[in-house]
Design brief:
This protein is an alpha+beta fold. Helices cover 66% and strands 8% of the residues.
Length: 315
């Protein structure tokens, strides 16, 4: 496998794909037509040096991914909203766009706060009750880790059973299958995509699992006294944890090292819950999103032509 550096996200009845400075959103509309939008990817970091600093670049990449992902989700959901009877004027449309922008930022902020509260702070508060039984920081931190993992796995298991989310997970599977298809040297078509794997080492699910595990390691070895000091330390370490997790995912996507592959297996196993087998029409949407931002034919010619020629000679 050779990394294509293309990444994506499932949205409502569609796929977002990003490659370098472009991202696309392909959505299957209620009338069964595919709506495709392509826009430049504008980074919040203008300094190229910051984009190259390990861990730091991961923090900014995480924020950008949240913003773009939420924007694409809102765009895809707009095709399934109830249409208003009266057409909007230009002034009303501009006002709506500003409202949508603020709604997007609010949604991102709320998602981050909710995630931090549920998966970082709540496990700490629950484990803190053990201080009435034991004074061992190690025991309490291990208990906190167990609670955190239980909440995380429980959350994934719960949402994977929701009917609407299952369709999103099917598109998630289509996204992975497309990327795996081209990264394994196959022509990008429905047949090849359908037989490709729906698990990928650079998946956001794997990133979240790395966040969980790395946070456990950090909190296990960093000890401070005082309830509120521990709370502050956990909050201050979050960007570092996100940055380290990003570097792990980035390394996994670029390496076939046996140790790296072994570390990637738990995340890929978890993807069996967050991805589902897509239908052929879902794959068509994913292919449209890929082709809008990525020249897969040039990629195959550059990375697999010699290999394919050798196979033809041997045959």
């Amino acid at each position: 496998m050779k990394s294509s550096n293309i990444g994506g996200q499932a949205v409502i009845e569609g796929i977002m794909m990003r490659h370098e400075n472009l991202y696309s959103v392909a959505v299957r509309k209620p009338d069964s037509e595919i709506e495709l939008k392509v826009e430049p990817y504008k980074s919040i970091v203008k300094n190229d040096t910051l984009k190259k600093i390990p861990i730091v670049r991961g923090v900014f990449n995480f924020i950008e991914s949240m913003v773009v992902g939420t924007k694409c989700l809102m765009y895809s959901s707009s095709f399934y909203e109830i249409e208003e009877e009266a057409p909007k004027s230009e002034a009303d449309r501009q006002k709506q766009e500003k409202q949508d922008q603020w709604l997007m930022y609010g949604t991102v902020a709320f998602s981050v706060v909710l995630s931090v509260g549920l998966f970082i702070m709540l496990p700490y508060f629950i484990a803190s009750f053990l201080r009435g039984v034991t004074s061992s920081d190690t025991v309490i931190t291990i208990a906190e880790a167990c609670v955190r993992l239980l909440l995380f796995f429980g959350y994934i298991l719960l949402i994977s059973r929701m009917k609407d989310i299952q369709r999103v997970f099917m598109y998630h599977g289509a996204e992975h299958k497309c990327i795996n298809c081209v990264e394994h040297g196959l022509e990008l078509n429905v047949e090849n995509v359908m037989k490709s794997s729906r698990e990928h080492k650079r998946c956001g699910t794997s990133f979240l699992l790395f966040v969980m595990v790395i946070s456990i390691i950090f909190f296990l070895f960093i000890h401070v006294t005082g309830f509120w000091q521990r709370v502050v330390v956990r909050l201050l370490l979050l960007p570092v944890i996100a940055g380290v997790s990003y570097e792990m995912i980035r390394l996994a996507g670029r390496s076939d090292n046996k140790i790296i592959n072994l570390l990637s297996k738990p995340g890929m196993a978890l993807q069996k819950l967050t991805t589902k087998e897509p239908t052929a029409d879902m794959v068509e949407v994913a292919i449209a999103a890929v082709e809008a931002v990525f020249d897969w034919k040039a990629y195959l010619n550059e990375n697999f032509t010699s290999t394919l020629n050798e196979e033809e000679i041997e045959a």
